[in-house]
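Q: I'm writing up a methods section and want to include an example of the input and output format. Could you take the sequence below and give the corresponding predicted structure tokens, formatted cleanly so I can copy it straight into the document?
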Amino acid sequence: MNKITKLIALLCFTISFASCSKDDDPIVEVPVSDGTTLTLNGIAGAEAGSSAANSVYVDLSGAQQVAVLRNSWALGFYSGSDFKVILNGTSGASAKKLNKTDLNAVTEADFNLSDLTIALGETGAKGEIEFKKFDDPREVSILNKTAIETISATDSENKVYLVSPVGGSHTAVISSETVYKVRILRKANGYTLQYAKLKETTFKSVDIVKDANSNYSFFSLSDGKTVTVEPVKANWDFVWTWTMYYGTNEDGIFPYGFSDIVFTNSLNGVQVAQIKTSVVSYTNFSESNLSASTFSSNRDVIGDKWRNTTGTAIGVKTDSFYLIKDGAGNIYKLKFNSFHASDGGVRGKPVVEYKLVKKG
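A: Here is the clean output for your methods example:
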């Protein structure tokens, strides 16, 4: 066989192999988890479990968790069709709108401590004023009532805000040294953020592009950069964290900073149903029971309802468990096993157990 014949034969073999490989590539289906037990890693260092420094994102089908320092960001820029910006409720961030559009015209004289300090526990008219300082957690979606108004397509309508990254924390110390001034504009498929510390006479500007794979793009004012917080929206179902939330008493509803809150990824279609063990036990619940279950898209269906932190019955509640339908349609049953020394657990490291009921 001469060199030309060998070359032609080799070329034909290569083309034939490549064609065969392309046609025969299998479609790889990533298996979903059948269920497991996870100890959520809320503790970042030596802090008390009641003020755990991590937010923990859980992906049930992937049987994994991602722990993120909850004070690592200040603003979240919504990636959906609307132009919304959220504050970091997990650090107690607060905001106040000013009647100005020029950051350089904003000075220390525009700062009033009471405008950004959240008076926890206030009810009535006073409480309603406090709720306006952060994204209202009483809403079905946190996007419904944000402290920063929807970003307008008309630049002149977008005012400057004073932002405290730690406005509602129980131990927060707010001063003119810790407050930022920010202004946000629309820019094509995204935003332009202008920001500076309150006393600074010049400001920085950064463009933030919407990411279709994520609910938000997050920005740290202190670090001056975008940061990774939530996993991509298809890769988490709920988050466990400390956050600004609310409580109720005989006087009404009041703003409060809660530990051990669970929010679902409702923006990616996650839904939850609460099941009473008096109707069917966690162990006995199966696919045949699903038809009698009512799912909700509210992000706080679980909220703080899964545990007791006061009285003589401190620990996880055993009268209920939850069904979680993820964005792909997989349905899991989930229960909390422990979260406190009183129930054999560790504060800041709750233990969850879950099992696949129906594959999507």
